[in-house]
Amino acid sequence: MRIALSRSFAATAAAVLSLAATTLAGSTVPAQAATSSGCADGGFRVSLPGGGSVSGSQSAKISTGSLASDAVLKVTGRYVEFEFAPVTGNIYNYVYTGAANPQSLTNGVRTPIWESKTLSLGPVLRTEVEVRTDGGDLQLLARGKAGKVKIQAKDCATGGIFQQEVEAGSTVRATHTLAANMYYYVNPYTGKVNFGDGSDFRGKDSPQVATKVSQGERVTVWDIASGGRMGQVLGEDAVELSAGATTCVSDCQAQNRIRGSLPVTDPAFSG
Hints:
single chain, 15-stranded antiparallel sheet, about 5% helix, globular, disordered N terminus
């Protein structure tokens, strides 16, 4: 279900918007630079509530004290689009655009992947949200007295391109709901749980200090320890025979995952 801004939101948000659209001396997004062919020409633009946007090498801070709980930042990239609710830390409407790329997994077809990735925090992140873009790298950091949620994303056609990290002093429950066209399944070549749509598209949840509570056809529930995270990988990274992520509860990053250096037995990528 798509989350919309309240009609009165634009007027109230304008008073709390503090945009620092200054060029960064260097990227503060810890993900590795998007240099592979799968990330060619990638770049994010984040549309801010009440007007304005962040793109290129820019940053902005927005007070979240008076934002509606369903207010969202709209993230638009060449390959990836999604919405982030800064008051709750939730993700909505994550879409793989199908932009032309030799490593595209959908043959140029726009493909919804996630309906939502929601957290049990509630509307408690009411201090500020910081937005930082550096071309194809993105960091969103929402803070409140009860904790913080950090999103790191890369605008790429494949690979490890997203993670949602939570610090709340206690375990947080995350509910991941795939888009209607996607489903979870056990990959017969690896024995691991992937998600896909019946084509060669392959995706995989990537937990770090997180425990799976339940698994359904479209919905998976996880308990994330404070400082842990839930990531996702697409394509070959989703089917390689890795040992999994390291244990990390502080500034966990995408490069903690092993990338492309281990055996791949799924014929969609091993040929």
